[in-house]
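FW: tagging you since you asked about this chain on Friday. Here's the raw sequence from the shared folder, copied in full. Didn't touch anything.
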Amino acid sequence: VILIDQSASVSPEDATLYRAAVGAVIETLRPGDRIALGTIADRPLGRFVFALDAAIKTTGNEIGDRPQEKHVRSTARDAASRLFASGQRAGHSFILDSLQAAAELLKASDHGVKRVVLLTDGREETPETDFTRQKADSAFAGRLLASHRRSGMIPPLQGVDVYLIGAGGRTSNEYGGLRAFWTTYIQGAGG
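HL: got it, structure written out here
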């Protein structure tokens, strides 16, 4: 699962890197692989929709698999192009809700290797959790995990490899806080 941050806080340079990363992943798809693309934007969990969820079925015959492989790659390229071409910049970034949607999709999947790639600056900006108002650090992640456990909203990340690519801060302190927050939160959710 690849989640692409389309919030206003993402720089044009990062958006260009995200596009290249998605393209590289698409080119590595092989028979038996599944890819899902979604955006980190203004949609909370209840309104989250994946732009693509496709699998390359395998017949066990390399020549027989090629048409399906080409079709899924083409479909994935088209979906990615639409996501990046929209040019829309969201006012919020529901990273946690997007991660929850990805984890739920993977929990229901029978594919062996499960990965979530978050292409994001790491700044959660929602009415509930806003890193422009709250310091992102491991202590805050711990409090949020406890709250999410009480409400049953911990993403089921057991057996899922999670990669957060692009997170940075305007200062080294902000970067350190974002890194500490996401490391604590993802590990606390089982990832």
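FW: The CA atoms of residues 117 and 163 lie 5 Å apart.
HL: agreed, and Strands lie at 2-5, 34-40, 52-55, 114-119, 160-165.
FW: great, closing this out.
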